[in-house]
Specification:
818 residues, alpha+beta, Alpha-Beta Plaits, extended
Length: 818
């Protein structure tokens, strides 16, 4: 429980941050590792870095951190291999304390070496297999080409022989001799076969043609199924090619072009018998390789299963060890180099738990000397720590997003738990939409244990984290929806029949006449008879606008009252007399008075124009009010309030800087001679160095700061009050949008008496309601409620210039790594 600061505020866990203390731990070297481990399990000490001047490589445990980093690399390698193989690590059953880090390091090294060797062998085998698959395709496709060419050549030769007459040979023996001579001098053509990627095949063919000046003959055949490339290991669509050439120069050019285009070449024989023999040999080798690869993959999967059984245990152990050594590097060695000295922040309530952890570590490590625990005095600002649960943590995160509270400053989160969902609901008032929101939230709450262990998307993660805030928002939306009497914009006489009845059929079109009161006033919320009348919008506008001002002035007053509690807690009488009191007077002299006039007008049913009253209160304060007078002596009261508001401005501006200057001078008088400290306080330190020399006090800076603060408050009192009118504007927009979707979509579709149009209308209505009203309007109202709390409420008292308590905790370390 937080301290109540002399009775200024109720003892609440969230009202003030936990009292913190700066502690010093002197730990023997032999028990240091176990001590830090136990403190990490406890998670209630934020260590200070006492070696900030040293680089990471100069610190004591740099070698151990490097060793843990190497083990973490191996674990990441295993995780990557398991994810590729589809092997899931088993949930951790044992304890990390049951295993030794040296054993883990040795085991990880052995497993990595074995896995790397298996992968290398498997890659070689797979590459050979892919090459043979391509070779088989070349043999088949090129063989078909050569076979068809040979058949066509044979057929052509037979046809030529049958057409040539025997007498032609007798008549021209010299020509025949010439032909025989020419045939003997024919140049033998060479050829190359292989596969080329299909997307490069046309460019490949064109480059070959140009490089050899057309002295090549190319044939390509499409391979129907994608093949795995031996070099890249990825599937690719390819063509089998055969290139005929003449001469060694042409061959060297073709080889270079093939290499440039990534075309894999394979040997090929013209002999049909050899082709058949090669296909048989390749098929046999493929079968052998397939068996070998399957056996290797089976062995690899068994190895990965073995790793997966203890993966979580090893991963947690390595993460913990790395975190422990990082923390040990923040500790400083004492002069004897036998002890480590640690300093850090911890909550006061945790002192006993920390001492128990130190004693347990000394016993478990068989240390001859126990650790020393002592509290240090300091002027350094402690970190801010609020103990939250799953219900309050989301609201505290909303407050911290604006700024972390200064140490023991009043926490707006206490009030935000209620006011945030309530102001949201004022803008989102519809109990039908509230029920839809509640059902969606209840799904997240009911399944929170299962969803907490799953990896959700960014948007879903935010919704799940704020599920209890959304639940409160939906409950308040149902409440305000019942007040507005709106269920998807439809009014229902839930609590009693309407107090009014129509005098005649045209009363719904009338503005002031036509309705007569026949029953008692509707007991709760808005009378349903208002909906659908011509006077509905003027009436609701007036109601919601005045209600917005009342809520805004109330919340701003609460903010100023919280500044009083802060001043009392920190014993600052200057802030009470020259900040709290003038601010209360100024705000309530103007807008507090306006709120009272609104309530009086509601109670009396007066027709007074409040715009006229407030404007002429400044422009002509001495004029008679006439018909705008709401109570006796109103003019005198207004003159007094106006005078108080004018006087409160210089009271905020002038006295505080001069009083602070006087207090500073009095505090530093006679400090040339300071009394010696007692010997029992020799261990206490002053980390901020505030007692050495005079603190600088710039009067001009303080005065300008106070001037800015005063101007900001005076102008903000007007602008902040006007800002609360967004409650009225968004509530009106939500109501009108609901009405439009109901009347112009659902009722319009119903009026056609066609079931197809009705189904389409219902679908459009559902999607419009969910997409616009339940998603976009929810987000809009959420952001506006957020702004009202951050700007209009919190700037009245909340400095938010503190820093969060970030303890050394294994739970936080694990979540950060994930």
């Amino acid at each position: 429980m937080a301290e109540n600061g002399g009775g200024c505020c109720p003892p609440m866990d969230l009202m003030r941050s936990e009292p913190m203390q700066l502690v010093q731990l002197i730990v023997p070297m032999e028990s240091a590792h176990l001590t830090v481990s136990y403190l990490g399990d406890l998670g209630l000490v934020q260590f200070k870095d006492l070696n900030s001047e040293k680089s990471p490589f100069q610190r004591t445990y740099a070698a151990q951190i490097k060793r843990c980093g190497e083990m973490a690399r191996k674990i990441r390698f295993f995780k990557d291999q398991m994810s590729k193989a589809g092997v899931l690590p088993k949930e951790m059953l044992g304890k990390e304390n049951d295993i030794d880090l040296d054993d883990v390091e040795e085991k990880l090294g052995e497993l990595e070496a074995e896995l790397v060797e298996i992968n290398a062998n498997n890659d070689k085998l797979q590459r050979s297999y892919n090459e043979l698959m391509e070779y088989k395709l070349v043999l088949q496709k090129a063989g078909e080409f050569f076979s068809s060419a040979h058949q066509s050549a044979t057929a052509q030769q037979r046809e030529t022989e049958t057409q040539q007459a025997p007498e032609d040979l007798l008549e021209s023996p010299l020509l025949q001799e010439e032909k025989s001579i020419d045939s003997s001098k024919q140049v033998k053509l060479g050829f190359l076969t292989g596969l080329v990627p299909r997307e490069k095949s046309m460019v490949f063919e064109r480059i070959l043609f140009r490089a050899t000046r057309g002295n090549v003959y190319i044939r390509q055949t499409v391979v129907e199924e994608p093949v795995i490339d031996p070099n890249s290991g990825e599937k690719a669509e390819k063509n089998v090619f055969v290139v005929f050439y003449s001469g060694e120069r042409a061959k060297s050019k073709i080889l270079k072009i093939c290499e440039a285009f990534g075309a894999n070449r394979y040997p090929f024989s013209e002999d049909l018998g050899k082709q058949a023999q090669m296909i048989t040999e390749v098929s046999g080798r493929l079968t052998e390789l397939k068996t070998t690869i399957d056996a290797g993959l089976g062995h690899r999967n068994i190895l990965l299963q073995t790793i997966g059984d203890k993966f979580e245990l090893w991963s947690l152990k390595v993460r913990k060890e790395k975190a422990i050594y990082h923390t040990l590097n923040m500790l400083s060695l004492d002069v004897t180099k036998k002890c480590l000295v640690a300093e850090g922040w911890s909550p006061v309530f945790a002192s006993k738990d920390i001492q128990e952890a130190l004693e347990r570590a000394a016993v478990d490590s068989n240390s001859q000397v126990g650790s020393i625990f002592q509290v240090l005095r300091t002027k350094e600002l402690p970190p801010t720590y609020f103990r939250t649960n799953k219900f309050t943590s989301a609201i505290q995160e909303i407050v911290d997003a604006y700024g972390v509270a200064k140490y023991q400053e009043a926490n707006p989160g206490v009030f935000t738990i209620v006011t945030f969902p309530f102001l949201f609901a004022v803008m989102f008032g519809d109990w039908g939409h509230g029920i839809c929101l509640l059902l969606a939230t209840m799904y997240l709450i009911v399944r929170e244990k299962k969803l907490a262990s799953q990896k959700l998307g960014d948007i879903m993660e935010m919704a799940f984290g704020g599920r209890y805030v959304i639940m409160m928002m939906s409950l308040f939306s149902i409440y305000t929806g019942l007040i507005y009497n709106e269920f998807f914009s439809i009014p229902y006489p839930l609590f009693a029949p309407s107090a009014y009845d129509c005098r005649d059929a045209s009363c719904s079109e009338a503005t002031t006449i036509g309705l007569i009161k026949v029953r008692d006033t509707y007991p709760f919320g808005l009378d349903p008879v208002w909906h659908g009348t011509r006077s509905e919008l003027p009436f609701l506008n007036s109601l919601k606008m005045k209600m917005s001002i009342l809520l805004g002035v109330s919340q701003m007053n609460l903010g100023i009252i919280m500044s009083y509690f802060n001043a009392r807690f920190f014993k600052s009488s200057v802030n009470i007399w020259f900040q709290f009191i003038p601010q209360m007077i100024f705000l309530n002299s103007l807008f507090g008075y306006l709120s009272v006039l609104i309530i009086i007008k509601w109670c009396t049913g007066s027709q007074a124009d409040l715009y006229h009253v407030m404007i002429y209160m400044f422009l002509s304060p001495t004029d008679e009010l006439g018909e705008n007078q709401l109570f006796p002596h109103q003019k005198t009261v207004q003159l007094v309030l106006l005078f108080l508001a004018l006087v409160s401005v210089p009271c905020m501006l002038l006295p505080k800087p001069f009083i602070l200057k006087k207090q500073h001078e009095a505090r530093h008088q006679g400090q040339s001679y300071a009394p010696l400290e007692e010997t029992d306080e020799s261990l206490h330190v002053e980390t901020s160095g505030g007692s050495h020399g005079h603190e600088e006090f710039e009067f001009s800076e303080v005065f300008v700061h106070q001037l800015i603060h005063t101007i900001e408050f005076v102008l903000g009192a007007v602008s902040n009050t006007a800002s609360y009118l967004r409650l009225w504007a968004l509530s009106l927009a939500h109501s009108e949008l609901s009405s439009v979707f109901y009347e112009k979509v659902l009722l319009l579709a119903w009026g056609y008496n066609n079931w197809l149009i009705l189904i389409v209308g219902i679908i459009v209505f559902v999607f419009a309601t969910v997409g616009v009203l339940l998603v976009m309007e929810t987000l809009s109202a959420f952001l506006h409620a957020l702004r009202l709390h951050w700007v209009e409420f919190q700037n009245k008292f909340y400095e938010g210039d503190g820093y969060k308590f970030a303890p050394f905790s294994f739970i936080l370390t694990a979540s950060e790594d994930e």
